């Protein structure tokens, strides 16, 4: 008796593939709404009548459009001084971070560096072991950096995670044979770094600039600990002070308390927009290299 041939397994048809595509689109749309709605709400609330915001009338579009919150914020000279300080701290801090990370990551990526694995182990241990807040503060104080710009820059001059990502990028994306050929042609280490390594490292440099710059711009805890003079306050600390003052003024006294509460509510949303705007403006300029640099620097190797 002849054996019956096994029937071939049914393959997914075009209809099944279309359903899968629609499911992916639906999930992506839900994620986009979850991510974008809070930002749109904050923008709308900052331009809306605070009474309508507290009443739950604002969902997506502004209602009772007003710019009183922005007028109160931008009329304050501390805001502009804080902006200037934050721009200075971010620019200088990011430059220091990039130089220090580059000078550490590139040697650690070279296979001809003596004791490379031991040095990399010591660097990695700093991700898990820390002296703690009090010892770091005492060190910064003994170095005379309290109430100076350098207290916000020097302690975090190198991020271990960013160093490892950049080192991995150098190892996986820049052929060692290219570097050996440059040495055979008489290229010095500094010339190799400036003429070959840096031009080939634009994606990872863009990623590092964005990571470090956003970190400096959003940082306020270090300034809260180390900065004493109001003239040196970064923007985040100035906005925090304004918000706390507005809330405390709303609580103190009975005359005009309702108006102060409403103004404090409106200021709360406006300060988020004011402090986030520079980062949102900067991101499109590095977005072209961002995804490529992160994927190559973190997955390969």
UniProtKB/TrEMBL annotation:
<comment type="similarity">
    <text>Belongs to the binding-protein-dependent transport system permease family.</text>
</comment>
<feature type="transmembrane region" description="Helical">
    <location>
        <begin position="20"/>
        <end position="40"/>
    </location>
</feature>
<feature type="transmembrane region" description="Helical">
    <location>
        <begin position="118"/>
        <end position="138"/>
    </location>
</feature>
<keyword id="KW-1133">Transmembrane helix</keyword>
<dbReference type="GO" id="GO:0055085">
    <property type="term" value="P:transmembrane transport"/>
</dbReference>
<dbReference type="Pfam" id="PF00528">
    <property type="entry name" value="BPD_transp_1"/>
</dbReference>
<keyword id="KW-0812">Transmembrane</keyword>
<feature type="transmembrane region" description="Helical">
    <location>
        <begin position="190"/>
        <end position="214"/>
    </location>
</feature>
<feature type="transmembrane region" description="Helical">
    <location>
        <begin position="87"/>
        <end position="106"/>
    </location>
</feature>
<dbReference type="InterPro" id="IPR000515">
    <property type="entry name" value="MetI-like"/>
</dbReference>
<dbReference type="InterPro" id="IPR035906">
    <property type="entry name" value="MetI-like_sf"/>
</dbReference>
<protein>
    <submittedName>
        <fullName>Binding--dependent transport system inner membrane component family protein</fullName>
    </submittedName>
</protein>
<keyword id="KW-0472">Membrane</keyword>
<keyword id="KW-1003">Cell membrane</keyword>
<dbReference type="GO" id="GO:0005886">
    <property type="term" value="C:plasma membrane"/>
</dbReference>
<keyword id="KW-0813">Transport</keyword>
<feature type="domain" description="ABC transmembrane type-1">
    <location>
        <begin position="83"/>
        <end position="286"/>
    </location>
</feature>
<feature type="transmembrane region" description="Helical">
    <location>
        <begin position="267"/>
        <end position="286"/>
    </location>
</feature>
């Amino acid at each position: 008796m002849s054996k019956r041939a096994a029937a071939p397994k049914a393959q997914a048809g075009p209809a099944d593939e279309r359903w899968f595509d629609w499911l992916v689109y639906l999930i992506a749309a839900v994620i986009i709404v979850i991510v974008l709605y809070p930002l749109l709400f904050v923008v709308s609330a900052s331009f809306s009548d605070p009474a309508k915001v507290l009443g739950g009338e604002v969902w997506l579009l502004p209602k009772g459009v007003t710019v009183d919150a922005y007028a109160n914020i931008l009329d304050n000279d501390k805001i502009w001084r804080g902006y200037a300080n934050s721009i200075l701290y971010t620019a200088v801090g990011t430059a220091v971070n990039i130089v220090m990370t580059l000078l550490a990551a590139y040697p650690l990526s070279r296979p001809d560096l003596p004791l490379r694995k031991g040095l990399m182990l010591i660097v990695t241990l700093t991700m898990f072991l820390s002296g703690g807040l009090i010892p770091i503060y005492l060190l910064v104080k003994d170095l005379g950096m309290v109430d100076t710009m350098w207290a916000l820059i020097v302690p975090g001059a190198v991020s271990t995670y960013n160093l490892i990502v950049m080192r991995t990028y150098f190892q996986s994306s820049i052929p060692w044979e290219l570097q050996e050929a440059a040495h055979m042609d008489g290229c010095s280490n500094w010339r190799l770094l400036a003429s070959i390594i840096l031009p080939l490292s634009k994606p990872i440099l863009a990623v590092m600039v964005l990571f470090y710059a956003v970190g400096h711009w959003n940082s306020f805890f270090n300034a809260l600990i180390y900065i004493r003079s109001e003239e040196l306050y970064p923007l985040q600390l100035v906005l925090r002070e304004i918000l706390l003052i507005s809330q405390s003024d709303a609580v103190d006294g009975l005359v005009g308390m309702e108006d102060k509460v409403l103004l404090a509510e409106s200021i709360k949303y406006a300060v988020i927009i004011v402090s986030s705007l520079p980062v949102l403006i900067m991101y499109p300029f590095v977005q072209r290299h961002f995804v490529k640099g992160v994927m190559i620097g973190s997955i390969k190797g």
